[in-house]
Amino acid sequence: MTDSSEFYTVTMARLYADQGYLRKAAEIYRYLADRHPEDPDLSRALAEIECEMDRQQVPTRKETVLLLREWIDLLKQKKRKERK
After folding, report:
1. DSSP class of residue 27?
2. CA 5, CA 8: separation in Å to the nearest integer?
3. In angstroms, what CA-CA distances link 21 with 28, 36, 38, 66, 78?
4. Angle at Cα 58 formed by Cα 35 and Cα 10, nearest 5°?
5. Segment 29-53, tens digit of pLDDT
6. In whole angstroms, what is the distance from residue 31 CA to residue 66 CA?
7. Do residues 25 and 14 touch, judged by C-beta distance below 8 A?
8. Environment class of 15 (CB within 10 Å of its CB; exposed 0-12, middle 13-18, buried 19+)
9. What is the pTM of this model?
């Protein structure tokens, strides 16, 4: 599940966070904060997500599933490139 950066919005980050996909939410907030350093809300939201991730210590099942899906997608992309 590799998302294009055009879908990296605050709304998408909130949806991921609400669904328990904290790593993906943090990735999006990090992307947005890098592009809009003047926006304190983005930095604050990222800090909150990162604190929550630190508290969890162990990845949630949802996070693990998302990570595995991302790995599978990357492997598929690599395989397609090798065929060309």
Report:
1. H
2. 5
3. 11, 22, 26, 8, 25
4. 25
5. 999 999 999 999 999 999 999 999 8
6. 18
7. yes
8. middle
9. 0.65
